[in-house]
TrEMBL record:
Signal peptide: none annotated. This is Membrane transport protein MMPL domain-containing protein. The chain crosses the membrane at residues 26-44, 50-69. The keyword Membrane applies. It is found in: Membrane. It is a multi-pass membrane protein. InterPro entries: MMPL_dom. Residues 2-63 form the Membrane transport protein MMPL domain. Keywords: Membrane, Transmembrane, Transmembrane helix.
Length: 71
């Protein structure tokens, strides 16, 4: 059995691959979106610290709501 390769196919393997790709795309999109929002907030508020505080509070609320939905 040397040199034998095994691979999974079918709907389950396809769904697992799509889920992994979707997760990676979501993280990439979220990072790009947050950076864009921070830049816009810095331009609007003319303050880096207040812009970071606004983003940090929004991310914290998002994570807390996400955790409350899971439980």
């Amino acid at each position: 059995m040397q040199g034998v390769q095994a691979a999974l196919t079918g709907t389950t393997a396809t769904n697992a691959d799509l889920q992994n790709i979707s997760q990676d795309d979501f993280v990439r999109t979220a990072v790009i979106m947050l950076v864009g929002i921070i830049i816009v907030l810095i331009v609007i508020t003319r303050s880096v610290s207040s812009s970071l505080f606004i983003i940090a509070s929004l991310v914290l609320v998002y994570l807390l709501l996400l955790e409350s939905v899971k439980s």
